[in-house]
Automatic annotation (TrEMBL), chain A:
Belongs to the TRIAP1/MDM35 family. The lineage of its organism: Eukaryota, Fungi, Fungi incertae sedis, Zoopagomycota, Kickxellomycotina. Coiled coil: none annotated. One of its GO terms (cellular component) is cytosol. GO terms for molecular function: phosphatidic acid transfer activity. This is Mitochondrial distribution and morphology protein 35. Keywords: Disulfide bond. It holds the Pfam family UPF0203. InterPro entries: MDM35_apoptosis. GO terms for biological process: phospholipid translocation.
UniProtKB/TrEMBL annotation, chain B:
This is PRELI/MSF1 domain-containing protein. GO terms for cellular component: mitochondrial intermembrane space. InterPro entries: PRELI/MSF1_dom, Slowmo/Ups. It comes from the Eukaryota. PANTHER family: MSF1/PX19 RELATED. Residues 1-161 form the PRELI/MSF1 domain.
Length: 85, 176
């Protein structure tokens, strides 16, 4: 899609756009056709690293990690991935 | 719209003119479960703080953040998205679950199911007022997100994304 969302950290926005472009291409051309390969891994790692810093600066890291296990708390989940790690 | 198309549109639904309250969207996790082939995505969304005036005095935080967890099963043509707010949880906890599945009787159609759970435990006699206010907004929000999805789907169609995918799906089927 033409317009793009910004990232929570302005410095991460270009990485995010690059990842999003890769993701949308990969999703429609590969993933939906049963191809499990993950083309966007490298760019995702770069984007993640940038995000980690921003989240830490904003003090969101703990809030997010506290919230994550309970995302399926109200609704029962068939694909519960919080179980085994 | 087929499930492939709808799931694609759903994952790319921002920005859209019906969701101007969503300011930023970041993917904080993206992985494929090797045993099931499912795609697991976690996203952090930042929204404008649309708290009603009477509740503003109880709020400390300014930015509203939402965590979204999406699981996509391409083989079973199912996408499940769960979102919950991670800020202002003292005031209100809203969890939403959206399920997109291929219509079992027509594979060019998609079924969408929305569930939500709204709980307020702030006390001060405000709980039910907060909950019913939120519930009343829920159906507006559903209508708005549906408009947003249709907008994104329509855009994708006009850009020929459907035709491309249709061609690719054809080729994929023929190669089997």
């Amino acid at each position: 899609m033409a317009e793009q969302m910004e990232s929570i950290g302005k410095e991460c926005t270009p990485l995010k756009h690059e990842f999003d472009a890769c993701f949308t291409r990969w999703y429609s051309e590969r993933f939906l056709h049963g191809d499990k390969s993950n083309d966007c891994e490298k760019i995702f790692k770069a984007y993640q690293a940038c995000l980690k810093n921003v989240l830490r600066e904003k003090g969101l890291t703990k809030m997010i990690s506290d919230a994550r296990p309970s995302i399926g708390s109200v609704f029962t989940d068939d694909n519960d991935d919080a179980g085994d790690k | 719209y087929s499930w492939s198309t709808v799931s694609y549109a759903f994952l790319n639904r921002y920005p859209n003119p019906f969701a101007t309250h969503v300011l930023t969207a970041d993917t904080i996790e993206h992985r494929i479960d090797p045993s099931t082939g499912e795609l697991h995505i976690t996203r952090l969304l930042r929204k404008t703080n649309s708290v009603p005036r009477w509740a503003r005095s109880i709020m400390r935080e300014n930015d509203a953040y939402i965590l979204e967890d999406v699981v996509v099963d391409p083989k079973g043509s199912t996408l499940v998205s769960k979102t919950r707010n991670i800020t202002h949880t003292r005031l209100l906890k809203v969890e939403e679950k959206q399920t997109l599945t291929m219509d079992p009787f027509n594979d060019s159609r998609t079924q969408c199911k929305n569930e939500t759970c709204i709980v307020s435990s702030i006390g001060y006699g405000l709980n039910s007022r907060i909950e019913s206010f939120s519930l009343s907004r829920f159906s507006e929000n559903i209508a708005r997100s549906r408009k947003g999805m249709l907008y994104v789907l329509d855009l994708a169609q006009r850009r020929g994304l459907f035709r491309q995918r249709f061609r690719m799906e054809q080729r994929h089927l023929e190669s089997q």
